[in-house]
Structures are given as structure tokens and as C-alpha cells.
Amino acid sequence: MESSSSWPESSPINRIKAIQELTQGQIYTNRLHEMIGQSETIESKLELVDHTLVISTSPNNWDDQTSEDSIESVKSMIPVKTRRGCYKRRKSCSELVNVTFNLVDDGYAWRKYGQKMILNSKHPRHYYRCSHKYEQGCLATKQVQMTEDEPPKYRITYHRRHTCRDLQISSPQIILDSPSPRDNSFLLSFETNELIKRKQFVSPFPSSTKR
DNA sequence: AAGATTTGACCAAC
DNA sequence: GTTGGTCAAATCTT
Questions:
Q1: pLDDT value at position A116?
Q2: Residue ranges of the WRKY domain (predicted)?
Q3: Is the CB of A33 under 7 A from strand C?
Q4: CA–CA distance from A138 to each of A67, A85, A132, A171 (Å)?
Q5: Which of the two residues, A118 and A25, has the higher pLDDT score?
Q6: What's the angle, vertex CA A40, arms to CA A43 and CA A157, rounded to 5?
């Protein structure tokens, strides 16, 4: 993974912060392993890219739709039209977790479809699906939740890979770094703060003064 | 008018 | 009974 991280050499404070982030990231990774319960089949990566902590997992079946589990997941997620919300809850579906300080457009077109308060969490979890779900059958979803850390971070969990074609590649913000086809993790590399300042901040938490 | 968001309801898993 | 993920009508934005 060759990430051209613009790490400021002359900033020991940032280094300390980075170490703290990495430590916490390792905790997240361990938790993820526990949740998934497949620690022996998962490779995990922990990286600090610019100001974004990336925790990527490579479960064997992330993209392997032929595995029984995946097939079952796909089947169970197909809603029965006449029964709202009729589906099987995903038990151990592969996922990719990204913890970041800044929320920037990841290059995909997402559409929010839900928001939920989660037990023991101060902040609600936001649910997004690919905008092309129905046009192209893309099953990619993501969940965004603000952590209770100080400073607060955003925990973005991606489920299923995009199968749609519209990647909006015109946006230079996303770099899909997948060194090999079998390496199912991918790195979302964000820009430095300096660059982000010039971009429009994309918040998943619109003002709640609508209603 | 069309597309996106909000939010209460629904339902399976636990 | 509780919780988390999704649906879909109502509402808002462009």
C-alpha cells in the first residue's frame, strides 16, 4: 500500500496523536474481530493516511458471492414486497470500518434511508444505500455514526461492495487502492486538512430543525 | 415536478 | 421485550 501520506515530520504532537489513534484503531480492529468471530480468516490493516484512520478488514468472503454465507445473506436481504421490513438480520457479514476526523465525499452517490438511536450511544447511526440500488442493483450500504471520542470522530462502516458503474470518478478525493484482486480491503484515502478546507464539507447530519 | 431526506412503523434476531 | 436494519409516506429541497 503505497500511500503518499503527507505526514508532517516536524510535528511530534501529531505523532503522539497518531500513536493514540493507532492504538485505538487496534482496539477497534480487535472488537471487529470479536464481532465477526472469524479472526482466523481476517487480515486486518491499520493505517494512518493523512488525518484519517483506516481500519480495513479482508474477510475471505467480502467479495466472494459464491460462499454459502454470502448467498444466504443476499437472499435474506431481498425484501418481500408485501411485508415491510421482512428480512434476516445480517449476523457476520463482512464489513469495512473507517474512522475519520472529517467527513468528505467518498466518491459514491449515497442516499440516506434511515437513522436510528443506538443503545449506549449518544449519537444516532445514519444509514445510507447506493443511489443506484434500483437502477443497477448495487447493494452497497454504509452506516455513519459519530463517536463519543474527544475530538469526535466519524465511524463509517461499509457493507457490500459497489457493483454500480457510476463511481463519480471526477472527484479526486477517492483513491481505491487495491493491490491485488484477492486483497478485498480497499483504502479510502482522503486529502489533507488544507485541501479539505477548500472542499465543501459533506455532513451526514443535516440540521435537525427541519420539522 | 423530481429527487432527496425525515421519521415512525415494521420485522427478524437476540 | 428489546434492539438494529429497512421500508415508505410525508415532507423538504432544488
A1: 93
A2: 99-162
A3: no
A4: 19, 19, 6, 20
A5: A118
A6: 50
